[in-house]
Amino acid sequence: MELNDTRQISAAPEIVWAALLDPEVLKECIPGCQELTGSVEDGFEAVVTQKIGPVKATFKGAVTLSDIVPGQSCTISGEGKGGAAGFAKGGAKVGLTPEAGGTLLTYAVEARVGGKLAQLGSRIIDGVARKLADEFFERFQAAVEGPSEDEPAEETDEDTKKKGWFARALGR
Amino acid sequence: MPKDTGIGASTKRREDVRFLTGRGKYTDDIQLTGQAHAAFVRSQVAHGEILSIDTSDAEKMPGVLAIFTGEDFVDVGGNPAGWLINSRDGEPMKEPKRPVLAHGKVRHVGDAYAAVIAETAEQARDAAEAIAADIKELPAVTNMAQALAGAPFVHDEIATNQCFDWGWIEDNRAATDEAIRNAPHVTTLELVNNRLVPNAMEPRASTGDYDPGTGDYTLYTTSQNPHLTRLLISAFVLGIPENKLRVIAPDVGGGFGSKIYHYGEEALVLAAAKKLGRPVRWTATRSESFLTDAHGRDHVTKIELACEKDGTFIAFRTETMANVGAYLSNFSTATPTFLHGTLMAGNYTVPNVYVNVKAVFTNTAPVDAYRGAGRPEATYSIERVIDKAARELGLDPIAIRRKNFVKPDQFPFTSAAGLEYDIGNYDALMDKLEELADFGGFAERRKASEAAGKLRGLGINSYIEACGIAPSNLVGILGSRVGLYDAATVRVNATGNISVMVGAHSHGQGHETAFPQVVGEMLGIDPASVDIVHGDTSKIPFGMGSYGSRSLAVCGSAVVRATEKVIAKAKKIAAHMLEASEADVEFAEGNFTVAGTDKSVSFGEVALKAYIPHNFPLDSVEPGLEETAFYDPANFTYPAGGYACEVEVDPETGKVTVERFTACDDFGNVINPMIVSGQVHGGIGQGIGQALLENTVYDENGQLTSASYMDYAMPRADDLPFYTVDHSCVTPCTHNPLGVKGCGEAGAIGSPPAVVNAVIDALQSGGHNVTHIDMPVSPSRVWAAMNNA
Fold first, then answer.
1. B524-529: average pLDDT
2. Interface ipTM > 0.90
3. CATH of the domain at B554
4. Per the count of CB atoms within 10 A, which of A74, B77, B542, B619 is most buried?
5. Global pTM?
């Protein structure tokens, strides 16, 4: 399955770029991410727990960044093995373009699953992948931008802190 | 007047008492002392190189007793193909080895490359998950046209994905091409015969046992043919001497072909039992059934029908790609060839037939015979293209068929595809169909449907099939590596009741009821005193099992022959008891009588004398009353039928509902009409399932995405109408003693084209110029066809 989308982020491209390469940010933003270690140069090791349809599994796998054009674009690819649940492979080509008020982030996500995930979950996998991609970029946007003014009132302090920490760390 | 016992009686199935009360005894019900459990580690990728398999963590898991990988089986044999096909150029087919466990490469999702034996099934599964295999995913091929175009190769050592390129009959090719070139009208149709998962209710299961004291192995397994399984394991795979291997196939909950074949799991549990000195058992999960039971059908076909403007057929020419999957299952090469190509003349006097079949390896589960096996593919192609031709020529679909039928006075008739049809009456079947399906009332019913906003269509099909798959002389010439006779032993016990040991295996066919009806009728005794013994190589004579609608025609004939021998011997004993000449003794209704007198002895008295041979003619007759017969028929049998299907199509949604279904079959003589009706009902259910619902989908990476009942649509009761079935048109088979033909597959053969023809008729009636929709004719496909046409 493939999906393409864009997101407007109220931060300069260099801030977005730095966030994209930061393991702490990735860990915060990858849905279900338990652990993420490593570096841009050597690649990351990730442990992600996800429920996809009837199959809940912990995926262990490698995340690599390639085709890096600093400040502009890169490809994030990952492959996770979920034991008896099967495997998931995917990648996202991410591009950053400066625009008024921030950055236009474009992404093209490609994902596929195998084993039990494909056998039991193929009908819902597109929806799940879309949801996970949305969730990732949603969190990423929040991490970069910090809490927006129209943040829902019931947002807890902790959440606010979590989502805004990167922007604050950069002194925004 | 229907009979209430013996041949022709609708005796209730005695086996249903145990099946319906939960007392059936299936392989998984058999619990052995000290048994261990196997779990298989299966490939998650469709094609991959096994770089390493690390079992060290798994070995330390609780309860683990042994772990096997492909490495453990490199020195044993492979699971062979049972039928040699030669290509058009004379080259033998490609036969890559099919190992017990994959070694070096995995070739389809579900391909087992390791197995864990543990104290419990759960421990075995947990440890299987702990096996760390490094498998490098390779590009996979699932599409047949792409597979034929070149790499990647499923088997590198053969450097092609083409198993064979077969022509039937090659000598007829030029004449057929010529006839088509010169024909006034040619109708062409490209179609897909959709791939099906067999979905037996009982998943495959096997338990291996080994007795170190005697060196004897026992395999309990879900098989349609225990002797064939034993032969394959002994002669090809493990080399266990046949006399040291007992194969027991107890109650089996449906096979539909998928349990004909030997599978690696059977060899694994035997090898593991030997190694551990303990019984080892395995029962497939439903997921494993989807991934590893041999699938059915999967043809991509182009068929051309050349005819005169008046509808007289001149030639059929067919090109088919048949998917055999990643490995050759035992009869995978026979199914698309001799069970398909030889039927491509249908019920018709068409003078030219040529069939080309290319069998293709792909990174998918093996494909083999499934209820109908080749004949559904043949019938579907022929009957769809005829329907299209009739429409193009403005001819009535029934009239065009009748015009080309082989007529009753033409039998025996050698078809242009080379088979000799011994007998039939296709016009009589069509007459019966017209009557029972009430074609006269169709216009009214269509009007009523239209008033309700629905489109109504009527689809016709006229099929012939070759059953009683057997004649060893013939199949041997055609490439079979086994004989296809069957065998029966009739043992009359001292007290007069009878055990009949048969080579056929009953897994839903009702043999335990029907075979005693034959023996009871012949001996003039109550069938209830006759029991059938089957499914155990240590109890039954060497028969070849049940498939291809052969049990009654082949094994039933062996039962007849053995019973005749029993009667002949009993007559000798009776003559002695009656102090008469054997020639003067007559046997009727269970009594031996001296002709023209009232002197007689009953069959029971003779039986007792045979086993208590006081005052017995020991110089001329042996004691005992038990006879065995092997029966190898002279020809296939040729059931035929006329089927009619009426559907309604909802133009808003494209949903098709089957409103009426009529099946008129000529099965020759019928032993138990109720069982025959049940067989036809089941077959039609599966045929409608194929036509409307079922589809097996691999994605481009070779992942099976229709691997559960959420995604694989099985027919349910509300998808099926009440059927009208009839088997009163009888032309008895001319070459077997019962005059029977076989009924197990007919429904699945005859129904798909009837359904699709009806859908096309419905759409045409609504002004939609749709000439074909591939099965399954799902709402989305129908809707798309209506809205694109």
1. 95
2. no
3. 3.30.365.10
4. A74
5. 0.94
